[in-house]
Design brief:
single chain, 194 residues, mainly alpha, 44% helix, disordered C terminus
Length: 194
């Protein structure tokens, strides 16, 4: 396969326009899309990413909720917040920003997010649906880039799955790396998500 340059800025602008149009259509029908972003701790890269995500949501006409917590928040407290967001009808997507403080189990928190609101596509049910080609949230940055470039994303997914680094490391989440995508969750998918 020949190397191909992908114009990320043009794709981002196109996606933002598409997302804003779809959000306006949903809002006109009585459902304003809602995204909750949960940030625990003071990771600088995460703060920048989250700030940009909240602004992108507002620009697209979303109901956007940012919940910031001190790094001392307990795992039980965070799980309770995720449960409350799962049950909040005004929230349609949940993004828990990684990395989390070391005393909180990332996997446990991700698995607590309802697959119906897992906009990162990190829940086991979401990743499994992707693997077998079923409908569900997908880690949007790598997949959309592949699709727009005419690259078979199934091949890339299989390669990542064999290496055992899908979806967290592939998307830059496991190490707080902000390189995985700048336009995520429509979310995103950046560190969190692109």
């Amino acid at each position: 396969m020949t190397a191909q340059i992908i114009d990320g800025k043009a794709l981002s602008a196109q996606l933002r326009t598409e997302v804003a149009q779809r959000a306006a259509a949903l809002t006109a029908k009585g459902t304003k899309p809602g995204l909750a972003v949960v940030l625990v701790g003071d990771n600088q890269a995460s703060q920048v990413y989250v700030r940009n995500k909240v602004k992108a949501c507002e620009d697209a006409g979303f109901h956007s909720v940012l919940e910031k917590y001190d790094a001392a928040m307990t795992e039980a407290e965070l799980l309770a917040r995720v449960d409350a967001l799962n049950n909040d009808p005004s929230i349609h997507g949940i993004l828990v920003q990684l990395p989390l403080p070391k005393h909180i189990d990332d996997h446990k928190v991700i698995e607590a997010i309802s697959p119906l609101k897992d906009v990162d596509g990190f829940h086991v049910a979401s990743a499994g649906a992707l693997m077998v080609g079923e409908v569900g949230f997908k880690a949007c940055t790598p997949l959309r880039l592949h699709e727009d470039a005419g690259i078979d994303w199934h091949e890339g997914f299989a390669r990542q799955a064999r290496r055992g680094d899908w979806p967290l490391q592939h998307c830059g989440q496991a190490h707080g790396d902000d390189a995985a995508g700048s336009q995520r969750h429509g979310h995103h998918h950046a560190q969190r998500h692109g």
